[in-house]
């Protein structure tokens, strides 16, 4: 009897055993989790789940008797690249980490596993390719989002509900994986295949439709639960509300996994050898490798250096805004002003700025970028036309909109300006599940966004409006885990909605920023203004640097020719990989994709060459707060242990204040002040050398931290001869000095004090070190010393610069006094060799020396 005869027993017996089924589905699940669309997981948790799925799959493969057992070298080849890719912060490389294991297993597989492992491998490589297309070709993302919304609305309409889903909550990635895997398994079965096609189509369609039908009930469920008294909610209802809606895609996985398991277990013919497949010529694998490299390069590689030097940026003076900066004698969060620091920041990058009252022809002449920040007054005659002409002639307009802004007649200044485009600012609030969209952004591959993470709110978006777009708009920044809370004109909360998700409101994949070419120029729109404000630019400055650098260069990131050619190459690559299940060809494609993607992620961010440079002013006005060594303060500025007060204090003293996320000498050499606030991660020897070189060349360094924080890891301060937790005579055990005030300046009639929250004694080996303040028993708690051309200050108190010891959010004083604000003002004026500012209480003294 022939092996391919449908009556053969191998076609009616189980394809693979249960262990192999679970191992295969574990790898498929790992790829889905790696996309970040399986639920609202923090990135470390998501990586851990991926790793657990990979480990489970690997373990089960080892238990399958027919599988080839791996050597030590084989295990290293299987795991080391996967772990390296998974260690990055790039989601597409996390998918590649899973794909690598799938392809390696396909290369090593033998009967009866060959067809299944090869089908899984081609599924993963094709899925990786398509996911790159979704990230790098804006039109592909837009079409996928449109399909998800239409499908959700159709299914919900059948049940009389409203449902507006983004791709995340439509489980689009999972469905794509399942469809691809089913298709390639179907190709691996023997003829006749037509009779199985209908059943397999049902196997991937019915679970998806059932899932969407269930999700359509979510708004009703949330409304029912919201109407219940808190005390009447049972344990199960509370647990369900934690799950819904942010982990709803897991339900789709549960519904899809059963048909997939049955298909693997019982689909006939999967245990046959792969002899019927046409062997792929080895030399043609080089063609696949080259084509796979071309796809990311064509869609996303930009190699021309871009700088803001000499670029002219014009801001419209009017709007719901002010141009104030933090000033002395005004305290608290509301004293920060709005946009006064923004021109100062752009000037530090080499640009020239102008705040225009009317946007006249003279103001627009020679402008590279025009910025509108929350325009709210009616447009003056001819004003919009001047801007449209400016854009069509090659200029760039950046429009920063806001949430729920609309006249009673429905008019909006934003949308009036956007009339020639297919971008519409919605009357809503793009509401996040986690504040600041932490671990919730999806940034399309773009010169302004590539390499910017979302562990902190580095994009600076808070609560703004979402955007509605049409062809040929390019989405730029997406908020995955949130919903569009529709506005209410009668609301007393700035026309904001009810904070409840309803079916008519889009959930998931909210468009937060987009761009569209218009004539020779382009329009870029954000639904929120927060990222450019004085306080938030401190953390989002690197994205803003990249954004304005991109805006000032008129080349589009994704012109039509790139998208069309890249899409064509992607389709050819997918068809080429799927034509004959050759693992060697898949490995070539995977290597090409990984190498090219890494190349894009390395080169493109480095093309924005402008860095903040305080040397453009005298004295140097750039202050960096080290954010790369896990400072003990909160990342939320106005918590008690945050540093919002310190940031404003530095700004009041004339500093352009930024977080230092990348600790490198190029950035340091441009700064005048570096603050290392209780670093919890040790400085490496090269980093310590960088800091020493920085100070030696004239930089100012301020380090805070107590012994409970530093312990024995005092490498940074010891490099400058300081020690925290040790007495000057080295004879006492570390002794906490607690909370107290210490005088640092005095006259015959008055003294001024500085507050310490939880200080420790400190000492110095250097003969030129001097004491700034003493604690109990005359033990030093703050010291300084000259070092080369610069100065170093060490304050032995972990919380010294935190809000609880410096500035309250509401601006209220500490026991009626502003002691530490005055201390910082005095200290900074003295460190910079300016005329020493002296607190009012001791201004009658003739000479003050710390």
Spatial ordering of strands, largest sheet: 2-1-3-4-12-11-9-7
Number of beta-strand segments: 23
**Overall average pLDDT:** 90
* Poorly predicted runs of 5 or more residues: 1-13, 276-280
Structural class by secondary-structure content: alpha/beta
Ends: how far apart?
99 Å
Overall form = globular
The amount of helix comes to 40-55%
Task: Give the biggest beta sheet.
Answer: 8 strands, mixed
Radius of gyration computed on alpha carbons: 30 Å
Helix tally equals 26
Beta-strand residue percentage: 5-15%
What can you see in these coordinates?
This protein has 26 helices and 23 strands. It has 850 residues and is of the alpha/beta class. It has an 8-stranded mixed sheet, sandwiched between helices. Strands 14-13-15-16-23-22-21 form a 7-stranded mixed sheet, sandwiched between helices. Strands 5-8 form a two-stranded antiparallel sheet. Helix 15 links the parallel strand 3 and strand 4.
Characteristics:
850 residues, alpha/beta, seven-stranded mixed sheet, 26 helices, 14% strand, disordered N terminus
Please give a quick description of this structure.
It contains 26 helices and 23 strands. It has 850 residues and is an alpha/beta fold.
Write the layout of secondary structure elements.
Layout: H1 18-34, H2 43-63, H3 72-86, H4 91-108, H5 114-136, H6 138-158, H7 172-188, H8 194-215, H9 218-226, H10 235-243, H11 249-266, H12 282-300, E1 312-316, H13 341-348, E2 352-356, H14 361-364, E3 369-373, H15 383-392, E4 396-400, H16 413-417, E5 423-425, E6 428-432, E7 441-443, E8 467-469, E9 474-479, E10 482-486, E11 510-518, E12 521-526, H17 537-551, H18 560-578, H19 583-606, E13 622-626, H20 644-652, E14 656-660, H21 665-668, E15 673-677, H22 685-696, E16 700-704, H23 707-710, H24 715-718, E17 722-724, E18 738-746, E19 751-759, E20 762-764, E21 770-774, E22 780-787, E23 790-795, H25 803-806, H26 819-831
Parallel strand pairs: 1-2, 1-3, 3-4, 4-12, 13-14, 13-15, 15-16, 16-23
Antiparallel strand pairs: 5-8, 6-10, 7-9, 9-11, 11-12, 17-20, 18-19, 21-22, 22-23
Helix pairs in contact: 1-2, 1-4, 1-7, 1-11, 3-4, 4-5, 4-19, 5-6, 5-7, 5-18, 5-19, 7-8, 7-11, 8-11, 12-18, 12-19
């Amino acid at each position: 009897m022939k092996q391919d005869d449908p009556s053969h027993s191998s076609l009616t017996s189980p394809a693979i055993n249960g262990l192999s089924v679970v191992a295969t589905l574990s790898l498929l699940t790992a790829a889905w989790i790696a996309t970040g669309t399986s639920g609202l997981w923090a990135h470390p948790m998501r990586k851990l789940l991926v790793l657990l799925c990979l480990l489970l799959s690997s373990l089960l493969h080892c238990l399958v008797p027919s599988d080839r057992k791996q050597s030590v070298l084989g295990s290293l080849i299987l795991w080391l690249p996967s772990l390296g890719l998974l260690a990055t912060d790039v989601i597409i490389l996390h998918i590649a980490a899973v794909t690598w294991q799938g392809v390696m297993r396909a290369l090593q597989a033998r009967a009866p596993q060959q067809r299944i492992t090869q089908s899984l491998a081609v599924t993963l490589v094709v899925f990786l390719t398509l996911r790159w297309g979704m990230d790098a070709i804006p039109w592909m993302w837009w079409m996928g989002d449109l399909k998800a919304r239409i499908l959700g609305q159709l299914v919900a309409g059948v049940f009389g509900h409203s449902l507006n889903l983004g791709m995340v909550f439509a489980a689009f990635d999972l469905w794509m994986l399942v469809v691809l895997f089913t298709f390639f398994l179907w190709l691996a079965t023997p003829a006749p295949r037509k009779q199985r096609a209908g059943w397999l189509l049902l196997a991937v369609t019915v679970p998806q439709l059932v899932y969407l039908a269930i999700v359509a009930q979510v708004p009703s469920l949330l409304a029912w639960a919201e109407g219940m008294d808190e005390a009447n909610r049972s344990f199960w209802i509370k647990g369900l509300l934690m799950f819904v809606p942010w982990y709803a895609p897991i339900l789709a996985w549960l519904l899809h996994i059963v048909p997939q398991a049955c298909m693997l277990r019982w689909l006939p013919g999967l245990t046959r050898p792969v002899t019927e497949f046409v062997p792929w010529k080895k030399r043609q694998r080089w063609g696949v490798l080259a084509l796979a490299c071309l796809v990311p390069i064509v869609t996303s590689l930009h190699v021309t250096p871009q700088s803001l030097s000499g670029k002219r940026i014009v801001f419209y003076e009017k709007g719901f805004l002010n141009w104030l900066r933090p000033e002395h004698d005004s305290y608290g969060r509301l004293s920060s002003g709005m946009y006064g620091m923004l021109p100062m920041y752009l000037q530090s990058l080499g640009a020239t700025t102008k705040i225009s009252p009317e946007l006249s022809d003279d103001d627009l002449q020679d402008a590279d970028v025009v910025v509108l920040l929350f325009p709210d007054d009616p447009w003056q005659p001819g004003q919009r036309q001047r801007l449209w002409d400016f854009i069509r002639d090659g200029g760039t307009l950046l429009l920063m909109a806001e949430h729920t802004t609309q006249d009673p007649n429905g008019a909006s200044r934003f949308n009036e300006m956007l009339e020639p485009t297919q971008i519409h600012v919605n009357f809503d609030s793009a509401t996040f599940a986690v504040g600041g969209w932490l671990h919730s952004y999806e940034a399309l591959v773009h010169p302004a966004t590539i390499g910017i993470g979302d562990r902190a709110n580095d994009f600076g978006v808070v609560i703004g409006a979402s955007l509605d777009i049409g062809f040929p708009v390019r989405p730029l920044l997406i908020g995955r885990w949130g919903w569009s809370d529709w506005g209410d004109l009668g609301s007393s909360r700035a026309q904001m909605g009810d904070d409840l998700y309803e079916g008519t409101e889009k959930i998931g994949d909210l468009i937060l920023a987009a761009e569209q070419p218009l004539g020779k120029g382009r329009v870029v729109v954000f639904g929120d203004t927060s990222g450019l404000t004085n306080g938030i630019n401190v953390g989002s400055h690197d994205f803003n640097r990249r954004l304005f650098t991109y805006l000032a260069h008129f080349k589009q990131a994704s012109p039509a020719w790139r998208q069309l050619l890249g899409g064509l190459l992607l389709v050819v690559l997918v068809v080429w990989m799927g034509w004959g299940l050759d693992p060697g060809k898949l490995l070539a494609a995977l290597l090409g994709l990984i190498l090219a993607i890494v190349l894009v992620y390395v080169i493109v961010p480095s093309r924005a060459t402008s860095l903040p440079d305080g040397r453009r002013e005298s004295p140097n006005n750039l202050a960096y707060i080290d954010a790369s060594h896990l400072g003990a303060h909160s990342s939320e500025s106005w918590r008690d242990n945050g540093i919002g007060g310190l940031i404003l204090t530095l700004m009041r003293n004339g500093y352009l204040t930024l977080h230092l996320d990348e600790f490198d000498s190029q950035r340091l050499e441009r700064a005048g002040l570096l603050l290392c606030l209780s670093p919890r991660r040790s400085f490496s020897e090269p980093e310590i050398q960088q800091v020493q070189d920085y100070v030696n060349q004239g930089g100012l360094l301020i380090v805070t931290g107590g012994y409970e924080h530093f312990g024995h890891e005092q490498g940074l301060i010891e490099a400058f001869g300081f020690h925290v937790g040790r007495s000057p005579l080295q004879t006492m055990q570390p002794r906490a000095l607690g909370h107290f005030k210490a005088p640092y300046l005095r006259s015959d009639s008055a003294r001024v004090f500085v507050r310490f929250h939880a200080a420790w004694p400190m000492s110095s080996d250097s003969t030129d070190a001097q004491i700034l303040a003493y604690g109990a028993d005359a033990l030093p708690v703050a010291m300084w010393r000259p070092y080369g051309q610069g100065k170093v200050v060490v304050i032995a108190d972990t919380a010294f610069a935190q809000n609880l010891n410096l500035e309250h959010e509401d601006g209220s004083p500490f026991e009626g006094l502003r002691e530490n604000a005055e201390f910082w003002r005095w200290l900074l004026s003295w460190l910079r060799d300016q005329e020493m500012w002296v607190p009012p209480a001791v201004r009658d003294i003739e000479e003050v020396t710390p």
